[in-house]
Amino acid sequence: QVQLVESGGGLVQPGGSLRLSCAASGSIFPIYTMAWYRQTSGNQRDLVASITRGGTTDYLDSIKGRFTISRDNAKNTVYLQMNSLKPEDTAVYYCNARILVVATWYDYWGQGTQVTVSS
User: Fold this and answer.
1) What is the pLDDT at residue 113?
2) Low-confidence ranges of the chain (pLDDT < 70)
3) Cα 76 from chain centroid (whole Å)
4) What is the spatial distance between Cα 83 and Cα 14, in angstroms, rounded to a whole number?
5) Around Cβ 20, how many Cβ atoms within 10 Å?
6) % pLDDT > 90, the chain
7) pLDDT digits (tens, 9 = 90+) for 15-34
8) CA distance from start to end of the chain
9) Can you say whether residue 62 is alpha, beta or left, with left for phi > 0 and alpha for psi between -120 and 50 degrees?
10) How far is residue 12's CA from residue 5's CA, in Å, rounded to a whole number?
11) Strand, helix or coil at 111?
12) Which of 10, 55, 106, 110 lies at a CB distance of 3.0 to 4.6 Å from 95, suitable for a disulfide?
């Protein structure tokens, strides 16, 4: 299995910043897309930001201008720089990697890292 290891979560005050990191290992196929999802009190995971291997990005509207996703293909690592954090950003953030193998998409997930925005 492809393993995704996340780090960088924690407690931060409103207006503060955090930088999440996710390192992927064990994949013998290219990772097409890496992304960050978040899950609040419900069971639904919402896409926060994604980035393709070529650098194309997509963002959740509510975080545009505050969060920046980037990746280092050589290290198979994706980052999420979160600035101007708001209490509503509080969630468990999950790293995702999508891989295409013989015309089939496979999704791999990290364990999740807690981000809490509170004074």
Assistant:
1) 97
2) none
3) 13
4) 10
5) 23
6) 88
7) 999 999 999 999 888 899 99
8) 39
9) alpha
10) 21
11) coil
12) 110
Residue keyed to tokens 């978040």: 38
Instruction: Give the three-class secondary structure for 62.
Output: helix
| Distance separating alpha carbons of residues 5 and 44, to the nearest angstrom | 21
8 Å CB contact between 100 and 107: no
Q: Are 38 and 116 in contact (CB under 8 A)?
A: no
Residue in this structure with the two tokens 């980037």, named with its chain if needed: 70
How far, CA to CA in Å, does 8 sit from each of 14, 53, 80? Answer: 16, 22, 9
- Local structure of 44: helix, strand or coil: coil
Q: Closest Cα to residue 3, out of 23, 20, 19, 30?
A: 23
Q: Helix, strand, or coil here: 82?
A: strand
Residue of 109, 68, 71 lying closest to 85 (CA atoms): 68
